[in-house]
Amino acid sequence: MASSPTQRSHHRHGPHSESHGHQHGLLGKYAELTFALAAAVCLGLGWALSFVHSISPWWPWGLYVTAYGFGSWFMVQEAIGELIVGRFEIDFLMLVAAVGAALLGAWAEGALLLVLFSLGHALEHYAMGRATGAIQALAELAPSTAIVKRGGTTAEVSVNDLRVGDIVVVKPNARIAADGFVIEGTSSVNQAPITGESVPVDKEPVPDAGQASRKPSSLAAQHRVFAGTVNGSGALEIQVTKLASDNTLARVVQMVAEAETRISPTQQLTKHIQLYYVPIVLGLVALLHFAWLVVEEPFSASFYRAMAVLVAASPCALAIATPSATLSGIARAARGGVLIKGGGPLESLGKVPAIAFDKTGTLTTGNPKLTDVLTADSIAEEELLRVAIAVESLSDHPLASALVRDGQQRLGQVISAEAENLRSVTGRGVQADFEGQSIAIGKRTLFSEIPGPPIPPELAAAITRLETGGRTTMVVRAGQRYLGVLGLMDTPRQSAKQTIACLRKLGVQQMLMLSGDNQSVADAVAQEIGIDEAFGDLMPEDKVDAIRKLQSSGGVAMVGDGVNDAPAMANAAVGIAMGAAGSDVALEAADIALMSDDLSHLPFAVGLSRQTSRIVRQNLWFSMGMVVFLVPAAILGLDMGPAVALHEGSTVAVVINALRLLAYPSVDP
To answer: Which of 97, 148, 165, 357 shows the smallest number of beta carbons within 10 Å?
Structure first.
């Protein structure tokens, strides 16, 4: 009776397809609506003239035929396309019903069928275009040209001609043309189109452009800019880090477009139901053709009833109920700085009873500070820090960056000497060579796994005190000598406690934290922000095991940075990455990506998911209820005209109901 939800939604409403597989010509996107209205006018005039006895009956008949032409114009093209690929969709079946009505001499009712169906179809297409248009608008955010400095002169070039390393001039209040970092000027940039941040972000130049160009992904937010964002009152010069085809905006648009093709479990269920529903309805319609053998009525009456049932039973509203809501939800999320990769994650997020969070960089700021420097006996603080800085300067771990930054500040000098031959011990620490010695830096568990003397009792006691106080500890050993222990502390995000409380209001039953840090630190952070349970001392594989256990007990979403948490996110019902605007890895790894590094966007995503699920349920119940009402009514004598009106009205109603998601408000934790 109708195509599968995926086929129907994309065949008719896909953002990259032409409407109904044909050109609209001079009338543009309103062609189908114009033809439907023209058919309605012809039908109305024909019906009115049928009561004027002084004119020839050929006049009303001619107007009915004209109404047939206008009303079926696009339907015929659609039906031919369907038949060529071996599909029998609703357009073909409606044409059959209209032809049947004409054969019975019911030209007015056949024309009414075509008018109402084409009108409903045009309005449905227009409404669905609102949702796809919201997504397509993302692609239009970036300007088509940029002012670039080359060879001492400036020139306006196409953004597609920009190269990595180009210097782009951004005028005040202009849209930024490329991803890059600021090398000249200060300003505030409105990043809401990409990250959903409501407050403009202050931007300033990087200290060293050469170093920044080598590792642009590690730059702080105040240096980085994205294509499609809006500059404030200051002029900027930025160095391009990505081609136009690879920038964050292009990736988001591509992934949102791909998300439209990924169907949700509910869509899969409706598709499965239709496999059985369609042959049952066709069998019923075939059987009704022979009703004249059982009841005293002419064959024409039985045929008419069968056509009315065919119209009433066609599951147009059911087929579009879920795709319309999913598309609207994905579009609204994208406008709010949340990238949702398909109907599956959108639907699943609203159902999970538990959410697990990584600690560092997710619940905490990810900007730890060096708070404690405790040396072993007869070891100078300068030696401890100099060795630690030389080794950790080779690492890109946040703790390493904090140690190098704060350690050099504490020493009052820059340590230029670097270690060599850095070796990572996953989840434990690092080893390297420095000044002829083998250096090991890491958790206390590292030193029970590598050769060498155990940690001295007095140093072990100091480590325990620091961990009890919520510090992350890093033990330093040079050769066979323990130099001491360093304590670092990462503070919880200001929005973390409010976000957890907001998620509880939305109905999330359990919040957990998974951390590679020691249990004491994990417990301290969990208690401060209201997490139900914290799991510390976890290796990456331990996080995967924990997620699998939670999955088996009802489902869980995993929130992390999308990089070292990727295995755990992949095993969760939904993987959610934070700060994805600056991370290609996070964009790829996550089912849902919060484009800004702002945890407060998570309640918005959860709330939108739950509202989408509610609207899908409303649409399904309404569409199925309409079929349950119309089929018996048509069998008992409901005319084809009212059946078509109710049938098409229900289709338009579910689409309009789904479009309410485009106005879903932001959730302020």
So the answer is: 165
CB atoms within 10 A of CB 210: 7
* pLDDT tens column, 384-443: 999 999 999 888 777 888 899 999 999 888 777 778 998 888 778 899 999 889 999 998
Q: CA-CA distance, 523 to 76, in Å (whole number)?
A: 67
| Burial letters 378-409, b for 16+ CB under 10 A, else e | ebeeeebbbbbbbbbbbbeebbbbbbbebbbe
Give this prediction's pTM.
0.66
Q: Between the CA of residue 62 and those of 4, 58, 59, 136, 262, what are the distances in Å? A: 37, 6, 5, 43, 47
Q: What is the DSSP string of 227-260?
A: TT-EE-SS-EEEEE-S-TTTSHHHHHHHHHHHHT
Question: Can you read off the two tokens belonging to residue 117?
Answer: 């169906």
- pLDDT at 447 > cutoff 80: yes
CB 304 within 8 A of CB 635: no
3-state secondary structure of 141: coil
Neighbours of 127 (CB within 10 A): 20
Cα–Cα distance for residue pair 386/519, rounded to 1 Å: 29
- The Cα diameter of the chain in Å comes to 120
> Is 358 labeled as catalytic in the residue annotation?
yes
Phi, psi of 263 (to 5 degrees): -85, 155
pLDDT in tens, 223-276: 999 888 889 889 999 999 998 888 777 777 776 666 555 566 776 777 677 667
What is the distance between the alpha carbons of residues 61 and 162, in angstroms, rounded to a whole number?
Answer: 63
Q: Taking residues 653-666, what's their average pLDDT? A: 88
Query: How far, in Å, CA of 565 to CA of 109, rounded?
Result: 62
DSSP symbols for 533-594:
EEE-S--HHHHHHHHHHHHHTT-EEEEE-SSTTHHHHHHSSEEEEESGGG-HHHHHH-SEEE
The span from the CA of 137 to the CA of 252, in Å, is 12
Q: Which of 166, 358, 406, 598 is catalytic?
A: 358
What distances in angstroms separate CA 437 from CA 297, 373, 390, 440, 486, one per listed residue? 103, 21, 12, 10, 20
Place of tokens 């001609």: 161
Confidence of residue 198 (pLDDT cuts 50, 70, 90): low
Q: In whole angstroms, what is the distance from residue 368 CA to residue 85 CA?
A: 60
pLDDT digits (tens, 9 = 90+) for 87-124: 666 667 677 777 877 877 778 877 877 887 777 667 66
Q: Which token pair is 660?
A: 């309410």
Assess whether pLDDT exceeds 80 at residue 195: no
In the DSSP assignment, the letter for residue 51 is T
Query: Does residue 328 contact residue 661 with C-beta atoms inside 8 Å?
Result: yes
Among candidate residues 367, 412, 359, the one with its CA nearest the CA of residue 385:
412
Residue 20's nearest CA partner among 37, 3, 1 is: 3
Q: What is the DSSP string of 355-419?
A: EEEEIIIIIB-S--EEEEEEEPTT--HHHHHHHHHHHHTT---HHHHHHHHHHHHHHTS------
Q: How many helices (H) and strands (E) does the chain have?
A: 22, 22
- 113 contacts: CB under 8 Å, gap ≥ 6: 94, 97, 98, 101, 311, 640, 641, 644
What are the structure tokens assigned to 411, written together?
């020493």
- Could you tell me whether strands 236-240 and 167-170 are parallel, antiparallel, or unpaired per DSSP bridges? antiparallel
For 594-620, the pLDDT digits (tens) are 887 788 899 999 999 999 999 999 999
